[in-house]
Amino acid sequence: MLALSRKKNEALVINNNIEITILDIKGDQVKIGISAPKQIPIYRKEVYVQIQEANKAAMVPEGLEALKGLL
Predict the structure, then answer these.
(1) What is the Cα–Cα distance from 39 to 11, expressed in whole angstroms?
(2) Which of 22, 25, 49, 69 has the fewest CB atoms within 10 Å, i.e. is most exposed?
(3) Under a CB-based contact definition with an 8 Å cutoff, are residues 19 and 12 in contact?
(4) For residue range 24-64, what is the model confidence (pLDDT) as tens digits?
(5) How far is the C-alpha of 10 from the C-alpha of 40, rounded, in Å?
(6) Would you say the C-alpha torsion 59, 56, 54, 32 has a positive or negative sign?
(7) 40 and 18 in contact (C-beta within 8 Å)?
């Protein structure tokens, strides 16, 4: 993991097309802004984990057996 220090209104650039800007700092809370192409999905980590778990749950092996029974 790369750890960088940034102050309010300073930014980081990732891969020439994603910019992360520190908008505000209040106590232990940091507000960031992200500029990225629309085709790049951006999720909070807890939401991303929920999506991954839902996708895994949708891949139930019993569903594959039911499909094989149709053939």
Answers:
(1) 21
(2) 69
(3) yes
(4) 999 999 999 999 999 999 999 999 999 999 888 877 666 66
(5) 22
(6) negative
(7) yes
The rounded distance, in Å, linking the Cα atoms of 53 and 59 is 10
Q: What are phi and psi of 33, to 5 degrees?
A: -120, 140
Tell me how far apart the alpha carbons of residues 49 and 54 are, in angstroms, rounded to a whole number. Answer: 9
- Tokens representing 50 are 């929920």
Q: Where are the alpha helices (DSSP H) in 1-71?
A: 45-58, 61-70
> Phi, psi at residue 18, to the nearest 5°?
-125, 125
State in Å, rounded, how far the first CA of the chain is from the last one.
48
R_g over Cα of the chain: 20
